[in-house]
Write a structure and sequence with these properties.
This protein has 237 residues and is an alpha+beta fold. Helices cover 47% and strands 23% of the residues. Helix 2 packs across helix 3, helix 4 runs antiparallel to helix 5 and helix 5 runs antiparallel to helix 6.
């Protein structure tokens, strides 16, 4: 392996693994000695890469505008384009705009051949029957979910019954026919699914449920999988 190829592979290893990555882990990835890794880290820093850490602690690559363009295989690029174009179609307005901006940024940092490939990608995403538009600001709901703060909103169910809910938001799921919120409902004292197009007058409360979002999300997803498995067993019986 040439030194140039090794430096590029070292950058990829720093990007792909959990940080910080020790020199021993990086050496194992590249099949070289830890001493060679230390020299290559110094070389990358000299070329403008921002790499935090030191020997004995580990190294973390901090992405920076001075770094060279990211390297993608053609299949990776196709996957990125398809995913971002799907978000343009199904995402709420803020997410859709963000996907468009991400595509423009990606195209601006790719080599010329791949930039042309992005502009004329053979894959596309479309929906002839889009889910109903949300009746709340989904960007605010996403932030409340990240911040692990309960939200309140008025909700109208399929029967037309209206209630006021306080919910710990866990995840927003974009489905074929509707976009929904998975959350813990304080009124029902259980996990519930809420369609975004049936929510009104949402506000973010000061009530925090940090750091419980991830374990609660695991629990509700496990329940959903268990119900699905039970249904499949009943169908096969």
């Amino acid at each position: 392996m040439s030194r140039t190829a090794r430096l590029f592979q070292l950058m990829q290893s720093l990007r792909s693994g959990p940080s910080p990555r020790t020199s021993e882990q990086l050496a194992q990835d590249l099949g070289v000695s830890a001493r060679t890794i230390h020299r290559d880290i110094d070389a990358l820093r000299g070329l403008g890469a921002v790499i935090d850490g030191e020997a004995g602690f580990g190294f973390t690559l901090i992405e920076d505008a001075t770094l060279p363009p990211l390297g993608f295989t053609d299949d990776e690029l196709e996957a990125l384009v398809l995913g971002l174009r799907e978000v343009q179609v199904i995402g709420d307005p803020a997410l859709s705009d963000a996907a468009s901006a991400a595509l423009r940024k990606l195209q601006g940092r790719l080599p010329q051949r791949q930039s042309h490939r992005l502009s004329h990608a053979v894959l596309a995403a479309t929906r002839f029957n889009r889910p109903p538009a949300p009746t709340i600001d989904v960007a605010i709901l996403r932030q409340a979910t990240w911040d692990e703060r309960a939200v309140e909103f008025s909700y109208t169910d399929a029967k037309g019954d209206a209630t006021r809910r306080r919910v710990n938001p866990l995840s927003i799921v974009y489905m074929d026919r509707s976009n929904v919120l998975l959350g813990w409902c304080h009124l029902r004292r259980d996990f519930r699914v809420f369609r975004l197009d049936r929510m009104q007058d949402m506000s973010v409360t000061d009530q925090s449920f940090r750091p419980n979002r991830v374990p609660m999300l695991r629990e509700v997803l496990a329940q959903i999988r268990a119900k699905r498995d039970a249904q499949e067993r009943d169908e096969d019986a």
